[in-house]
Amino acid sequence: MNEVRATSGYKWIVVIVFACSLFTFWLGTISSSMLDVHVDYIRRQLGDIRERMFNNTFIKDHVDRFSELLLLSPSNATDQPKDADKKAGAAGYAVLASDHHFEYLFPLPMVVLSWRRLGIDALVILIGTKEQFESDKHLNYVLSSLRELKTRIFFLNSSLAESFTLAQVSRLYAAALEGLNLPDSTVLITADADMFSFKLSEHMPDLRAGKKIFLYNSQCCGQMRMPADSENYPHIPMNTIAMPVVLWREVMGISPNMMTSGNGDLVATRLYAEFGKALVTGPGGKGSEKWSMDQNLISALLHRWIKKNPANQQLVAEKPSLDQRYDRAGWNYDFSKEPLAGKGDAHFLHPMFGDNWPRMVGLLRLMFTSKELEWCINYHTAFMKL
């Protein structure tokens, strides 16, 4: 009887091997275009499954990242380094941006790592062309480090506005980037390049509770009103605003792939329409109205979106004020005695590198694994030797 069973088992093995061979032969005969169709179909089906799972089983402080294993096709890598990790379908991305100023550019790789410790990946918008970044040794080193971390990178450029303005406001337009290729349900979180966040639950909407938008520290900045509006409304900070891709497009009045080939003119012309060309192109720095155009714009557009349909207010959740913060204004912390528990974020030193670096390492040691900490230290050391 055992011999019969063994023989039967061998027959099934032969049948399975034969079937696999036929499948391999068939796969080799279909055209690449047909294969693309099948791959796209599978991706869409998995995307639908992922969306249902995300809406039904989202748990705060833990993000399901199984669908990051799906690779984007080459056509989706527009304006991204060839060796960037072209992932699709993560439940959420922190949207970071910087121009060539190292106060904001240098920390980017470590800020990417800080979001990953919360289970959220990051996409980075760099203001300038890829050629400009690759031709300068310091800029190229930061770019190469982001690529080493397999970060999704988009380059954006425009002569119609200053680079810092584009860096700030472009975060609101991430859903219009060419090649973004994310499911509508993917949450994009505007985040600062000089900030570490410690609690995911304070930066993601609870979809199970019917919330689609989350505003962090939403009552920090009082009230405001744009000239086109008839009443005051909350002045919302950019760090952080979270909502799904589909809502970003609705609130901002944008559509997929509007910013093609790294052209950032869309951002600048929108600012001209809202604020006037004189403000956008005129003088102004930190503390000026020009410096806060990003949060002025999103505050106005979100207010108008809710005013148009008051039921939208039910989709918004917020954390009105901060927990305790590590703040650069009083950076005299003994991190050997400073647990992260109870802290909401860290608004860290400018610049992060050079003389300030020893004052930063204690916090990095609290946040990261030993391997990640070693990577950060090596990153700083190599940067300072350039």
Structure write-up:
This protein is α/β, with parallel strands linked by helices and 386 residues long. The chain has a single domain (58-385), classed as Spore Coat Polysaccharide Biosynthesis Protein SpsA, Chain A. The protein has 13 helices and twelve strands. The chain has helices at 2-29, 32-57, 102-105, 108-116, 130-135, 137-148, 163-170, 245-252, 265-275, 277-281, 293-308, 357-367, 370-385, and strands at residues 92-98, 121-127, 152-156, 187-190, 195-197, 213-216, 223-224, 233-234, 241-244, 316-319, 324-327, 343-347. The strands form three sheets. Strands 3-2-1-4-9-6-10 form a seven-stranded mixed β-sheet. The chain has a three-stranded mixed β-sheet with strand order 5-12-11. Helix 7 runs parallel beside helix 11 and helix 12 runs antiparallel to helix 13.
Describe what is shown at a glance.
41% of the residues lie in helices and 13% in strands. The chain has helices at 2-29, 32-57, 102-105, 108-116, 130-135, 137-148, 163-170, 245-252, 265-275, 277-281, 293-308, 357-367, 370-385, and strands at residues 92-98, 121-127, 152-156, 187-190, 195-197, 213-216, 223-224, 233-234, 241-244, 316-319, 324-327, 343-347.
Salient structural properties:
386 residues; alpha/beta; Spore Coat Polysaccharide Biosynthesis Protein SpsA, Chain A; seven-stranded mixed beta sheet; three-stranded mixed beta sheet; 13 helices; disordered N terminus
